[in-house]
Inverse folding.
């Protein structure tokens, strides 16, 4: 199966370096309290990764700005989600 | 930007553009704010354009709108693991102008729509994210943007900021969306020569096909798939309820990869070049999930208001219609010398209730719940129907009466007599 990264490579992004528009509020909640970690498999761009020690890491560069991670984290509400600054983020060529 | 506007429209998708165009055309002083580089660069849709909703806004849109193909054929596929049972409706009447539906590429279409908004006299500002609403008590008086000194004021704000609808949430107008009220759809666009598309799908130049799919491609989850023909590309996607993706532990990326590998779909994409991968939440909660859509100095249109008819795969036409009706409400109130108070803006709700938007959503109000609680419609039935077709069509020396008995047995074994009757009743009630 083709990797999601290869697909994201086709997309056009204007990355706002150093200013992630999505943040995990409390990393301990992901690691210790969240069993399912749905963000790690529901995110269509695989921005969330489950590490060996149960930590969840987030890299927003490939974000498609769909909102899934925020909606799916309803149990812990541990995702701080904003749109990128004006002009930044995904720029759909076709949409 | 200390100027005060009659109305600020947040977002330049179909609902925002419809609202801004209608308001500006009638002479209102309109500011539209878009966070993308250009209008359309943040927007994702299948995408099918329904002419009727746009004709009511720009009757002559066919003159210069970027349209891909007009649809002359609709296919419905119920997929098994390596098969499908399908129905097709193709008609010459859909191949006679004025055409009823077109495929479009949203980045191009939205840019065109926005150019019309600007011609109508609205001020459109891109690359600007609205970060919050300015409230005076419970009255919306303007918006905060991420530009320096970025406060702008208006008599009314139309929230056309899409399914995530962050502004209304921050202002406390409504709560976070529930995972069972949205579908996550992922989509790819594959480029192919127009001649390949026309021979593969049995089409002439500019003619198009839409294929809607259900069954095994959603791997037991409530959802559907689609494949649409553009001029020189094919878009395909699959979407499932977010609550189902969570409980099934399936990644949407894996879902679309498996969909593309289906033996009925793979040959249609053969040799194509994938040029973009996108994702989008689709509000599918229906009538019962519609939040408060107007208040003191504000109205909500399009996906933000959950205006999607998931049964008929209609969204952009509801978006354009809600945007137009919101603007018409403002135009009427202004003519009558009335304020944009919640009491007066209630007229927007009345207009919606009188339109196909609310009538259709009301008709199917129970369907999302029926589907959510009855996964057999997406799992067992597609499988049973595909197996039945296989049994009847396979010539293997068994007599037809025995085959019919086997098929009946397979249905009773999976669903029982009561189950079958119950399912039929549930569907009848929900579609009634």
């Amino acid at each position: 199966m083709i990797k999601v990264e290869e697909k994201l490579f086709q997309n056009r992004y204007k990355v706002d370096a150093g200013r992630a528009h999505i943040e995990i509020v409390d990393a301990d909640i992901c690691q210790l309290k969240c069993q399912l970690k749905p963000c790690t498999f529901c995110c269509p761009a695989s921005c969330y990764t489950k590490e060996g020690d149960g930590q969840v890491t987030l890299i927003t560069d490939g974000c498609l700005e769909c909102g899934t991670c925020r909606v799916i984290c309803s149990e812990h509400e541990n995702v701080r989600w904003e749109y990128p600054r004006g002009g930044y983020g995904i720029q759909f060529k076709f949409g | 930007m200390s100027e005060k506007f009659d109305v600020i429209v947040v977002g330049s998708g179909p609902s925002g553009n419809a609202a801004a165009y209608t308001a500006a055309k009638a002479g209102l002083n309109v500011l539209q704010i878009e966070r993308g580089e250009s209008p359309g660069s943040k927007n994702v849709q299948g995408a099918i354009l329904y002419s009727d909703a746009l004709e009511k806004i720009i009757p002559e849109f066919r003159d210069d709108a970027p349209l891909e193909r007009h649809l002359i054929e609709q296919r419905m596929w119920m997929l098994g693991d390596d098969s499908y049972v399908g129905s097709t409706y193709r008609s010459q009447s859909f191949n006679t102008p004025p055409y009823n539906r077109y495929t479009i590429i949203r980045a191009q279409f939205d840019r065109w729509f926005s150019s019309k908004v600007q011609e109508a006299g609205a001020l459109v500002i891109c690359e600007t994210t609205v970060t919050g609403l300015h409230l005076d008590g419970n009255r919306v008086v303007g918006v905060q943007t991420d530009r320096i000194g970025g406060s702008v004021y208006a008599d009314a704000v139309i929230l056309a900021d899409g399914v995530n609808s962050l502004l209304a949430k921050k202002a406390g107008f409504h709560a976070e969306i529930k995972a069972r009220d949205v579908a996550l759809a992922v989509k790819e666009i594959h480029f192919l020569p127009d001649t390949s598309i026309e021979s593969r799908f049995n089409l002439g130049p500019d003619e198009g096909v839409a294929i809607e799919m259900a069954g095994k491609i959603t791997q037991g989850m409530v959802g559907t798939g689609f494949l649409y023909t553009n001029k020189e590309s094919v878009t395909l996607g699959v979407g499932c309820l977010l609550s189902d993706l969570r409980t099934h532990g399936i990644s949407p990326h894996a879902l679309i990869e498996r969909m593309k590998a289906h033996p009925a779909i793979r040959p249609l994409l053969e040799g194509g070049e994938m040029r973009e991968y996108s994702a989008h939440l689709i509000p599918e909660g229906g009538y019962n999930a519609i939040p408060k859509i107007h208040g003191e100095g504000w109205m909500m249109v399009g996906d933000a208001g959950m205006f999607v008819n998931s049964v008929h795969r209609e969204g952009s036409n509801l978006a354009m219609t809600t945007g137009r009706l919101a603007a018409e409400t403002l135009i009427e109130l202004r003519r009558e010398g009335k304020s944009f108070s919640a009491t007066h803006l209630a007229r927007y709700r009345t207009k919606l209730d009188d339109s196909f938007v609310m009538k259709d959503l009301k008709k199917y109000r129970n369907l999302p719940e029926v589907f959510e609680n009855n996964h057999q419609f997406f799992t067992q039935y597609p499988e049973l129907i595909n197996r039945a077709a296989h049994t009847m069509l396979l010539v293997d020396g068994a007599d037809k009466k025995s085959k019919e008995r086997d098929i009946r047995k397979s249905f009773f074994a999976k669903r029982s007599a009561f189950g079958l009757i119950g399912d039929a009743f549930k569907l009848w009630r929900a579609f009634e």
Q: What stands out?
A: DSSP finds 14 helices and 17 strands in chain B. The radius of gyration of chain B is 23 Å.
